[in-house]
Amino acid sequence: MAKVTVDGIEVEVPNGVSVLQACEAAGKEIPRFCYHERLSVAGNCRMCLVEVEKAPKPIASCAYPVADGMKVFTDSEMVRKGRRGVMEFLLINHPLDCPICDQGGECDLQDQAVAYGMDKSRYLEEKRSVKDKYMGPLIKTIMTRCIQCTRCVRFATEVAGVPELGATNRGENMEIGTYVEKALTTELSGNLIDICPVGALTSRPYAFVSRPWELRKTDSVDVLDPVGTNIRVDARSGEVLRILPRTNDDVNEEWMADRGRFSFDGLKRRRLDRPWVKVDGKLKPATWAEAFGAIAAKLKGLSGERIGAVVGDLTDAEAIVALKDLMGALGSRNLECRIDGAAIDASRRDYYTFNTGIAGIEEADALLIIGSNPRTEAPVLNARIRKRVTAGHFPVGFIGPRGLNLTYPHDWLGEGGQTLRVLAEGGHRFNEVLRKAKRPMLILGRGALTRPDGVAILAAAWKIAAENNMLQADWHGFNLLHHFGGQVAPLDLGFLPQQGGAAISPAVEALWLLGAEVDAAAIPAGAFVIYQGHHGEAAAARADVILPGAAYTEKDATWVNTEGRVQRGRLAVYPPGEAREDWKIIRAVSEVLGKRLPYDSLDAVRARLGQVNPAFADGGFAPHGCTDLTGPAGDASAVSDAPFAPVLQNYWQADVISRASATMAECARVYSTPQTQLAAE
Fold first, then answer.
1. Where in this chain does the record put each 4Fe-4S Mo/W bis-MGD-type domain (predicted)?
2. Which one in 39, 83, 163, 422 has a CA-CA gap of 20 to 30 Å to 567?
């Protein structure tokens, strides 16, 4: 540890940290443009100048290491003059775009120019102009504003793993851009907007839409991928205009995937905003009373054995427990939440969660990925894997399609089940790598469990974990990676077939679909279908009654991410039209059916969640080990030789919200079209 004095305040910091970090430890704010806590040090903006005793000139504090006994001055006359000079140089060519710039009001350059710059300029020369670059349908560029801080270059290379941005030319002629003009091939491109300290990179869908002081900001959780990214929903006049990530080092650090960030325009398209009832074979608008009456007329005389319920991948925990209680009151055991057919064993929580934890990836020292593509299934989690790989000494083995670009080097072990069987039997060369590691881990993709041999695959993966040092008293290296933010909660709440029940079977005469996009062909012919959800797709078209629900930004709700962490989302805007929160709809139906549920408030529903599973009361996730090595049911040797295939074929349109989004439709078009054809267009 080194003792450093900053403006008379003595602090003790680890050896090797920068002077800037020491100043922040002393509570002093140091301006910066190029420096970012999660990126490598560039030291090229010089805005972070400070004075060090006995130094002949100001130093760049971001790139200068501390020394024991060092005395630092952050507000001396030398420092003030140095910062004013740097700011003057930065503004020589920066255009006066503040009135029309989307970064206005939350721009680092604006703030620091006022706080540390001069009140006048001595330059009368013409400003330079730079051609805007094309970076895809999500990023708008105004490169004349660029100050060459290179944050975007370092993020693309170091975090996203796509070294497609860089600087060309030198000095005043330097320009940042893609070497060949094309769309950035990363699912994390929206983070470039957040880290750009000026208005050079802004959101194309948000261009000229609003000013930050006009927006109502609400903390929530992204449910469009399994990470459970902490987000802030910015809305105005009842409409979501922007979604940004919030910092949570245990979950998403400060990054966010593009689908969750940019698909919000799908929240106002193809919405179900009023009840519908099928009359004479055609769906017709109805009142709530008419919709409830149609449900009561069908269900009241029906035995529980003839009623089934299925919940979808974006459903909140409150609605799930309410529907489960209603089905229990009706005597139904026909429940299902695995609409993708995944062979998940829910008898133990660690069979279906990411037990290492997302942050725990950084503690691991070997990784085996089975039938999963984390880059498209969970881009933020994939960035955490890349972070661990770049730290060194982290071998990654991969079973899946050959030639897949995961953004980090990996050892391709094979395409399918034959490799998995050999690993389970302990006869593969990668077994030795795992056994030598102190904290090895594996990631099993949920998509791998949707195959006919899914039960055997789950058993084989657990066997590999148990026999290769992954299950220890203080370390749990078995991880199942889900696809969406609503897939763990129903497993926690036991929304599964009970005592031989089956939600979708010829015996079912009434089927309740709670946000579940079940293939219409799989629904029994003649079954009475109740569809409750916020977007109308094939399942809604098959329904006899439609009940309009609320999307994740339109309700106070509880979500569980892939690691089992319980998080709360909050209402940012009200549901459109006559749509209501899902648990309230189910509670109202129970009254009509004469099976009144025993809760009338959100707090009461959440108390019920804690009764069903204590995880909802204590937060759900804490780092843990594994002492019971008993595996899930299944024969590991029964895995077929079939290769693992990607389940999410189209990252940009993987859920009902993104499929309704015009922005995501454009992304799907751009990233499925050869770049040569786009250039010709």
1. 215-271
2. 39
- Above 90 in pLDDT, residue 7? yes
Structure tokens at 565: 């962490």
**Which strands form 276-279's sheet, in the order they lie side by side?**
282-285, 276-279, 545-548, 528-533, 510-514, 307-311, 334-336
Owner of token pair 């751009």: 670
Mean pLDDT of 241-266: 96
Burial status of residue 497 (CB atoms within 10 A of its CB: 0-12, 13-18, 19 or more) = middle
Record the pTM: 0.94
- Of 57, 90, 123, which one is at a domain's C-terminal end? 90
Q: Is residue 227 part of a domain?
A: no
Percentage with pLDDT > 90 across the chain: 87
Assess whether pLDDT exceeds 60 at residue 489. yes
Over residues 77-92, the pLDDT tens digits come to 999 999 999 999 999 9
Q: Assess whether 496 and 611 both reside in one domain.
A: yes
Q: How far apart are the C-alpha atoms of 384 and 372, rounded to whole Å? A: 15
Q: Residues 6 or more apart from 18 whose CB is under 8 A from it?
A: 41, 61, 62, 63, 64, 65, 66
Confidence band, pLDDT 50/70/90 cuts, at residue 674: low
Structure token pair of residue 541: 């078209």
Task: Give the separation between CA 267 and CA 244, rounded to whole angstroms.
Answer: 16
Using CA of residue 97, residue 103, residue 104, residue 106, what is the dihedral sign? negative
Find where tokens 């090595």 sit: 629
Task: Report if residue 599 sits inside a domain.
Answer: yes
Residue 662 lies in a domain: no
Q: How high is the pLDDT of residue 675?
A: 55
Number of domains in the chain: 3
* Of residues 488, 632, 630, 511, the one with CA closest to residue 560: 488
Write the CA distances from 551 to 237, 273, 314, integer angstroms.
17, 11, 9
Residue pair 200/142 in contact by the 8 Å Cβ criterion: yes
User: 3-class DSSP state for residue 168?
Assistant: strand
Distance between CA atoms of residues 458 and 445, nearest Å: 10
d(CA 372, CA 410): 13
Inter-residue contact 259 to 187 (CB < 8 Å)? yes
CB distance 309 to 336 below 8 Å: yes
pLDDT at 680 over 50: no
> What's phi and psi for 79, nearest 5 deg?
-65, -45
Looking at 73, 90, 107, which one is the last position of a domain? 90
3-state secondary structure of 459: helix
d(CA 237, CA 249): 32
pLDDT at residue 469, as a whole number: 92
Given this model, what pLDDT does residue 525 score? 86
451 and 502 share one domain = no
User: Which has the closest alpha carbon to 376: 189, 652, 662?
Assistant: 652
CA 424 vs CA 419, 454, 457, 481: distances in Å: 9, 15, 10, 19
At 137-173, the pLDDT tens digits run 999 999 999 999 999 999 999 999 999 999 999 888 8
Max Cα–Cα distance, the chain, nearest Å: 90
**Residue showing tokens 């083995």:** 397
Are both 406 and 526 inside the same structural domain? Answer: no
